[in-house]
TrEMBL record:
This is Peptide/nickel transport system substrate-binding protein. Pfam families: SBP_bac_5. One of its GO terms (molecular function) is peptide transmembrane transporter activity. It comes from Natrinema salifodinae. Residues 265-586 form the Solute-binding protein family domain. Keywords: Signal, Transport. Signal peptide: none annotated. One of its GO terms (biological process) is peptide transport. Belongs to the bacterial solute-binding protein 5 family.
Length: 592
């Protein structure tokens, strides 16, 4: 794809902070004159002949060998943008570099990727709240700020039942209007498994620990062999490293959490039970649990974990340095008070439904992680995280020490990762009714491509493709009497994200028009071979309000064209109605 790299345009963010009614915004997008002072100034600047040039932007995305769908989506978007007079280049980065560029450095124009999403709409709190606009990780990587959305995000944490559904609907309405990111589709997740060596596949999602527990091995089978194309787990097993973590199945197998989520319900795990009483969660841990190094798991370890995730500097800096993962969950917790060796209380300022999600974070051994906190690294440390970082974030954490059902055994970087069963794990107790590790060893082999991963399962060299396979391979898979295609539900989604810290991406009118250049229905058919569900709202279906329910097209930003072909005239008119201008060569012009 030809095109020069985009200049990083800078302009006032007044457009984001202005209070504009939804009706006024829609009217302005439809062609009425912009009514705010900031927008009038933008029009004047665009019309000025001495400071305008063709809009040039870069799409940051992932390579085809790690995420073919992201690459295809980026290329389709680039073609459409060039059709309507925008100069486009594509910046393809490895998964680690993509996360560093987008999530840590915030040095991008627009990005196309796979968002981790969430099973509950509370994930939007950390995804979009303005208090996180300069933090790292999936905490508001777009730099989006809006006081109305902030108020709604906070309110949905204080109310329940139908009232919470109404508040979430208001949040989704604002997101659909302003489009800080464009949710494209929810992909189906397919994996290939061997049924001759293991039974009971599908009782747990293979993106979580439960997918690898409770399996029924055939006689003589004592090893579960997984394969995937992502080599990052062989390089880094740090639960805090956002650039190395997508799905957390292997981290979940190494580290216990107080609770787990199953079918939308929060259930006890390391916690034997808890009781809710008006903002207090009274937690009792299972007795006699230990970490993999033999040290006991205590309430003090749990309390340390929450305090550490809230501030990795351990109170040694003027401002807290929160971890780049689990931010929204730990922010719920106000105080953590151990009441005994295996008893503690957490106080929260939210409803029980949201509060229980704070119980899903991994529990760290304080005797290991305490030494990784303290002083925040500064310039030259090799880490570029906005809120600062410590050794806790940059360490590869190998060997990891958790308390989970499997423990680390060995690794060959870029090739193989091996776990062994933690025989004293509480799931092995006859009095505990939870799925347990049923094999002595779990090996994770790294293969160069999804085609190779599928092939080695078919060749009986592996038992499961732990990464979802490419949608194009699903149609090609014929299966045998010893293999099966397994489908899991997905809470993740593909998206187009804007860096609203800079112009013209800080203009919601611009973002809405770009959203209308994506034919989501056509993209799911073409890029995902029909194995994805186009969406207008980035939450599970039961939370989508009727006005945003998909019905053949996006109800808020319908495609300006048909069958994947953009109506060039309609798109150009939309840009002009929003205050942008074209030159006599058909190039979209913006202030530089």
């Amino acid at each position: 794809m030809k095109g020069r790299r985009a200049a990083h345009n800078r302009c006032s963010r007044g457009d984001e902070s202005s209070t504009v009614s939804r009706r006024a915004m829609l009217a302005a997008t439809a062609g009425l004159t912009a009514s705010t002072a900031g927008c009038l100034q933008q029009v004047r600047d665009i019309l000025a002949p001495d400071n305008i040039s063709q809009l040039s932007l870069t799409i940051t995305t992932l390579p085809a060998d790690s995420d073919r769908e992201s690459t295809r989506l980026a290329r389709e978007l680039a073609e459409v943008l060039e059709t309507v007079g925008i100069d486009v280049s594509i910046d393809i980065r490895s998964q680690v570099d993509f996360h560093q560029t987008v999530l840590y450095d915030h040095e991008f124009d627009v990005c196309v990727g796979h968002h981790p999403g969430g099973t509950d709409p509370d994930y939007l709190y950390e995804a979009l709240h303005s208090i996180y606009d300069n933090e790292s990780g999936w905490q508001n990587p777009f730099g989006y700020t809006d006081p109305t959305v902030d108020d709604y995000l906070e309110e949905q944490r204080r109310v329940g039942g139908d009232e919470r559904h109404e508040v979430v609907a208001n949040i989704l309405d604002e997101i659909a209007t302003q489009q800080p990111f464009v949710p494209i589709c929810v992909p189906e997740e397919h994996r290939i498994v061997r049924t001759d060596r293991f039974g009971d596949w599908g009782k747990g999602h293979l993106a979580t620990r439960r997918g690898y527990l409770g399996l029924e091995p055939s006689d003589g089978v004592d090893q579960l062999r997984a394969t995937q194309i992502d080599a990052r787990p062989t390089e880094n097993l740090n639960p805090l490293a956002a650039d190395y973590r997508d799905h957390g199945a292997f981290i979940d197998l190494l580290y216990d959490s107080l609770a787990i989520e199953r079918d939308g319900e929060i259930e006890p795990w390391l916690a034997d039970e808890w009781k809710w009483d008006d903002g207090t969660i009274d937690v009792h841990l299972r007795e006699g649990c230990t970490f993999h190094d033999g040290e006991p798991v205590t309430a003090e370890d749990v309390a340390f974990t929450y305090r550490f995730l809230q501030d990795m500097s351990l109170d040694e800096t003027e401002a807290p340095s929160p971890a780049p993962r689990y931010r929204g969950q730990t922010a719920i917790v106000e105080t953590i008070n151990p009441r005994g060796r295996e008893h503690l209380e957490l106080t929260v300022d939210t409803t029980e439904t949201v509060a229980e999600r704070a119980l899903l974070v991994p529990i760290f051994p304080a005797h290991i992680w305490r030494d990784r906190g303290g002083d925040v690294m500064g310039p030259g440390s090799g880490a570029s995280i906005a809120q600062g970082t410590t050794e806790a974030v940059v360490a590869d954490n190998i060997p990891p020490v958790g308390s989970g059902p499997f423990q680390f055994e060995d690794r060959t970087q870029g090739d193989l990762l091996t776990f062994e069963r933690f025989d004293t794990h509480f799931t092995r107790r006859p009095t505990v009714d939870l799925p347990e590790p049923t094999v002595d060893e779990l090996s994770v082999r790294i293969d160069p491509s999804e085609e190779a991963a599928v092939q080695i399962v078919e060749d009986d060299t592996a038992d499961v493709t732990s990464s979802p396979i490419d949608t194009g391979l699903v149609d090609e898979f014929e299966g045998t009497e010893d293999t099966m295609l397994l489908e899991d539900p997905s809470w993740t989604f593909y998206f187009l994200g804007f860096n609203v810290r800079k112009a013209p991406f800080n203009n919601f009118r611009f973002r809405r028009i770009i959203a209308q250049l994506l034919d989501k229905e056509w993209l799911t058919d073409t890029v995902f071979h029909g194995r994805a569900r186009p969406i207008a709202a980035p939450v599970p279906e039961q939370w989508v309000p009727d006005p945003l329910t998909w019905d053949g097209s996006d109800p808020e930003t319908p495609f300006l064209g048909s069958d994947g072909e953009v109506d060039e005239s309609a798109a150009r008119s939309a840009f002009e109605d929003a205050g942008f201008r074209y030159d006599d060569q058909g190039r979209l012009r913006v202030r530089q």
